[in-house]
Structure formats: structure tokens, C-alpha cells
Amino acid sequence: MNLNDEIETLLAANVPLIQLVTYEEDRVIETIAALSSKLGIYAWDMAECKFTAIRAASEPFPSQDAASDKVLAHIAEKAPRGTVFILKDFHLCWSRNPVIVRKLRNMVRQLREKGQFLVITTPVNELPVELKDDVAVVEVPLPDADTLENVFTGVTRSLDSSSRPTPAVREKLIGSALGLTTNQARLAFARAYARKRQFDESSIDAVMGVKRQLIRESGALEFWPATAGESGVGGLDKLKDWLRLREKAFGQQARQAHLPYPRGIALIGIPGTGKSLSAKMLAGQWKLPLLRLDVGTLFGSLLGESERNMRRAIQLAETVSPCILWIDEVEKAFAGSGLESAGGAATRVFGYFLTWMQERQGPVFVLATANDVSALPPEFMARFDRTFFLDLPNRLERRQIFAIHLKNAGVAFPERTLRFEELVERSNGYVGREIERMVREAQFMAFADDNREIEMEDLLKALEETIPISRSHAEVIEQLRKWKTEGRAFPASSEETAAPVAGRRILET
Ligand SMILES: Nc1ncnc2c1ncn2[C@@H]1O[C@H](COP(=O)(O)OP(=O)(O)O)[C@@H](O)[C@H]1O
Ligand SMILES: [Mg+2]
């Protein structure tokens, strides 16, 4: 239901207390004013301490001044029948003064009899429990494309036709502003125009820039720059194959072929095996924006705030789609959201996310990474197209990982200058992160020793100094591996036996 219909229905049903959760007071007032009803409309805020007529009521309203502690009594005693009173930020009044809460409840009957409505606008969805039964709460959705089109028309009205955009650019501009409030959109359009004194393709970037900024400010979402493609990740051939097969799935052609959108994958397994790295790599490979959702920052102290933040984060992600929504360390993100803590904010936020995962239509690819998902409910895992398990790297994979990091450290041909096979052999049981650290350690040793080339001895020394997690936490690793051995996750890599031993060729390409 859109906002018009929703408000219209509430007024027709004679619901006298309505809370609209939004920052956009002006848009709400415009919406109410545009309804076909004949009700008078007055707006009040606690700074002005008076009622301002948006549309005068049919009865007189003799005294329109009212301070915040008197405003309800004023309405009850002096205000005309058949009127909507818009009380801006009224939650600040009731949170300071419990008498106001009681007074609101006392007024319900009289309001109904006189055909009066109190529309309370608040930026956050918080309502005293005492009012839960009496107040209809409406979360005002962000403006749709039609509304933004009006905003855009407003901004461009005074421009001469040469600085107006082509219809195609106009449509894209309006699309790129989805997710912004009307005020933000107006500002974004104005700024985009100010840069070049005209609207063209580059204006779209400017509007997207505003949205990126907003996403950054939201705290919960973070833009990750798309880094290099899959070449920076060693091994994981099966995962890479799966992703490569879907590389073009978000493009125009795929739409024409009625290809469904890939929905998401979970990467689980041993720490340091390249799960987070793969997420970053995927954005580069698919050329999609990568948004990291930091679930921890969603939680707020106010009732309902956490879910609202979650909803807002997801809404924002949807407006930049197609994109990849990455939840790193998902088991920590939703820790404590098991059924035993039902009623807690974590449970509700998690529940909201689960529902969204199930019902969403748009091209938001969810990538969840986690070490241990045994505490997460099975229905969560079931929402993904596939769950991959990242195990300890096999011989071929270690060879590739060493090559990547040695190359980064300036050793272009390790198989010629080092006893490479010995290194690969001796690092059995080490994960990618440990290999990377070893190479870095060796780099420091070589640099400290008169900035020479990295030698075999440096690497072996670093290797001896590193106790791999597979040894220090053998039982934990065994436990994690059950996901693979029990067939609950697909291996991200081929079995070692199937891997070609000719590492040389791979390294030199
Ligand atoms: N398969 C790999 N190929 C290349 N580097 C890797 C690989 N796995 C891990 N690394 C190195 O280890 C670092 C940490 O890996 P990360 O992806 O954060 O591990 P996790 O699986 O715990 O998320 C990476 O930034 C990268 O330098
Ligand atoms: Mg990680």
C-alpha cells in the first residue's frame, strides 16, 4: 500500500491517533493536503508553539497559540471539528512528560466523536507501550520514482532546455536517486547540476556519490572498492568455477534470456583460508559494488531501532543493486539470536533478515562468510544457493598462494630462485594467511640484511617460527571439517589427487 492509500484508509476508519515514522515532514504534509478529504489541516511544532493552517477547517479556530504542555488540552477545548492536526516531533514531548501519554489515551473518544485526528511525525519508530493499542504506526516508505520525478521537475523547472537532460539520462538520474529522501534527492540533483551547469551522464555519478556518502554515514554499510579479479586468490578452483559460471548473470542479456538472479552463497571453513579475500575478489570479477554490512552497528538502544536500521540498510543496498551484500563473520553478527533469546533485538533483526532473504526479488547477491556456522539455525543456511567449505589448502593451492605472495614481495620466479617444492611440501597444514605472514616475515629479514633478495633460509626460518592453527587448534579444525565430511557444504577446492602436479606452468602464467 502506498502512503496516500494508507493515510486515507486510517482517516476513513476514524483512527484518531496516527504516528508517521519519517524525516520527511513536508512530504507527509503534502500527501495529507492532497487527499480528497475535506478535513481542515493544521501543523504544530514545539518551537513555533502555534498551529499553522495548511487548509483552514470549516469551523473557526480562534486561538492558535499553544505551548507543548498545553497543546493537547488546547485541541480538546478549542480546536474545530473535522480537522487533522500534524504534531511534529511529538515523541520528544511524551518522552519528557508522562502526563502527555495519559492525556492522549484520555482523548481518543472525544477525538473520534469530533472527527479530529492527531498525526504525529517522528524520525524514529518508538512508541510508549501504553500507547501501543491506540496509535496506528505507519513507517513512511522512501519516495518512489514518481515522487522523485516530481522533485526533479521542480529542480529543473527554471532551466532552459539546453541544460536539461535527455530522457534517457533523466530516467537514470531519477533511478539513481532511489533510496534518498526527497530533501536529499533535491540536494543531490542541485549539486549534480552545479558542477557542470547542465545535466549529463556524469550527473548520474554525482547522484550516486551522494548515495555512497549516505551509505557511509549510515554506519552499517560500507562500500568496498572492487579490487582485482580472481588472480589474487590461490586455489579454490571449484568456488571460482561456480562464480565464473554466473559472471554475466546480472547483465542485460541474462535478463533477456530470463536467467534467474543468483541469490547468494555462504563461505565457511577454517580461518585464514581466503573467505573474506574471495568476497573482495568477487566484486572485481563481477564488477559489482560490494557493500559490507556491519551487523554490530545496527543495534540501537531504542525499542525497534535495530530492526529499523536493518531495514534501512537493506533498502539502501537494494537501491544500489545490482550489488553484492557481504556479511563478514556472520556467526558473530547474529550471535545470540538463537531461539533461547527470543524477544531480543538480535532475534528480531535476524528474523527480519531471514524473511528478506526468502522474499526478495531484486539483484542483491548475498555473500556470507563465517568460520563456524554450527550455532546458526539450519533455515539460514538453506537460504543460500550453495555453501562452500574452505579447507586447509592442498599442495597445488599452497603453491599458488606462495607464488602470489612471493610475487607481491618481489620474487617473480620462486620456482627458479628458491627450493620451491620443498617450501610447498613443508607448509603442509598452513593456511593462506599463515603463508602470507611467512612471506612478509621473510621480506623483513631480507630487507634488514642489507635489502637483499628473499632467500630460502628466510622462508624456512619464518615457517619454523609459525605454529599453524591446524596444529595449535587441531580439535577445532576437526570439528569445522565435519561440515565438509558430513556433506553439509560443498568443497571449495578439488581433491588433491585430481590436481595436476605441474605447478611450474601455473606459476609462470
Ligand atoms: N587462497 C588464498 N590465496 C591468496 N591469499 C590468501 C588465500 N587465503 C588467505 N590468503 C591471505 O590471507 C589473508 C587473510 O585471508 P582472509 O580471506 O581474511 O581469511 P578468512 O578465510 O579468515 O576470511 C588474505 O588477505 C590473503 O593475503
Ligand atoms: Mg575473514
Entry summary:
The protein is an alpha/beta fold and 509 residues long. The chain has 24 helices and 13 strands. Helices cover 48% and strands 13% of the residues.
Q: What does this entry look like structurally?
A:
The protein folds into 4 domains: about 5-140, P-loop containing nucleotide triphosphate hydrolases (Rossmann fold, 3-Layer(aba) Sandwich); about 145-220, Helicase, Ruva Protein, domain 3 (Orthogonal Bundle); about 225-390, P-loop containing nucleotide triphosphate hydrolases (Rossmann fold, 3-Layer(aba) Sandwich), CATH 3.40.50.300; about 395-509, Helicase, Ruva Protein, domain 3, CATH 1.10.8. The protein has a 7-stranded mixed sheet with strand order 7-9-10-11-8-12-13, sandwiched between helices. Helix content is about 50%, strand content about 15%. By secondary structure, it is α/β, with parallel strands linked by helices. It contains 24 helices and 13 strands. The radius of gyration is 30 Å and the shape is elongated. The structure holds adenosine-5'-diphosphate (ADP) and magnesium ion. Magnesium ion binds near residues 275, 276 and 369.
- Show unreliable segments: 338-342, 498-509
Number of domains: 4
C-alpha termini separation: 57 Å
Summarize the biggest pleated sheet. Answer: 7 strands, mixed
Shape: elongated
